[in-house]
Structure formats: structure tokens, C-alpha cells
Amino acid sequence: MDLILVRHGRACERDSVAWPDDARRPLTVEGRDEFALLAKRLGRALPKVDLVESSGFVRAWQTAQLLAEHAGWTKPVRAERLEGDESELLPSETPRHRFQRQLDTLMRAITAMRGIDTVVWVGHEPILSHFASLLLCGDAARARVAFKKGAAVALRITEDVQLRDATGARMGGVAAQLLWMVTPGLVSRMRRA
User: Fold this and answer.
1) Segment 161-181, tens digit of pLDDT
2) 123 near 8, Cβ under 8 Å?
3) Phi and psi of 126, rounded to 5°?
4) Which of 30, 113, 151, 167 shows a CA-CA span of 20 to 30 A to 63?
5) What 8-state DSSP symbol labels residue 69?
6) Dihedral angle over CA of 80, 86, 90, 91, nearest 10
């Protein structure tokens, strides 16, 4: 199975007056244009995907819609597991525990999807880079994945392994190998070349 992780494109700056609910913050015009170009390249390189799931936050959802429009990929479906902020803490839970809970949820989801050929997840930082690190190294904090806004990274899920969570406890999971990573800046430079 191949997993394509996509960080949402460049969005408007945080502004509590314009967007009191940060989940409603949209892509900028430049962010839409940059990502549309990247989406076209992705569609040429990978003409078919089986499932596109996205955070429902506006900036991620708009990014997923651009993938459908410009890459020709399947229409996105909302996956709440790709969202999250500290307002969703459970009683007596710290932000670190909430983050670990989200990583565990993503690991369970990807394990359950192992029969699907190509899955795309559109989401946010820092969860995407930590999840990529977890899949690549078995440790969510070991690999530094520079997930620029609008970047996409492809991972091939390879095998079941025993991973350790942030506390050192064993947990089941999967491992992956890095196939490629592309950023809007790279696509822009390729276009000029």
C-alpha cells in the first residue's frame, strides 16, 4: 500500500477577528495557485488513487478539492482523525497525550486500510511529519521531515513491526519506506527549467 501525506497549501495568517474559529481559515490565492500546479504534477505522476481523506478544516479541505480538480483524483471524504487541536482534550489529558492518541488513531487507521492500493491523507503539521517519522523510523520524533505547506510525501507501507510510543511502551504498527517528496517550490523551479 502507498500512503501519500499532503500538508495543506499556504493559508491566510491566523486572525482571531477574521477567523475566530481557526478551522475556518482558508488558503490564500497564492496558496491555491501554488498547490494547483503541484496537484497537476501529482496527477501526471500518479494518475489514480483509491481514497482521498482530508481534515475538514477549510484550508485542508480546499487542498483536497484541488487534488480532485487538478490531479483528477477521487473526491475527498472528511476524516476527523486528521484534525485536532487542544480544545479536544479529554478530562485530565495533556496536549502531549492528545497528540499521542492522534498518532495511535492514525496508526490503527492505516493498519486497517492495508488492502487499499493508494491512500491520500490531507492534513496539518505537526502530526503529518511525526506520523511519517513513526512509519519510517519507529519513533515519532526521530526523523525530521520538513513538511512545507503544500508538500506531499509518498510512503510505501512495507511490513508489520513492533513500535514504541512516546512513553516507550510497545505498540503494534507498520513500517514504511520513503518513495518521494515534492514541495511547491520544487515544482515551481521545475516549471522554469
Assistant:
1) 555 555 666 555 678 999 999
2) yes
3) -90, 0
4) 113
5) I
6) -170
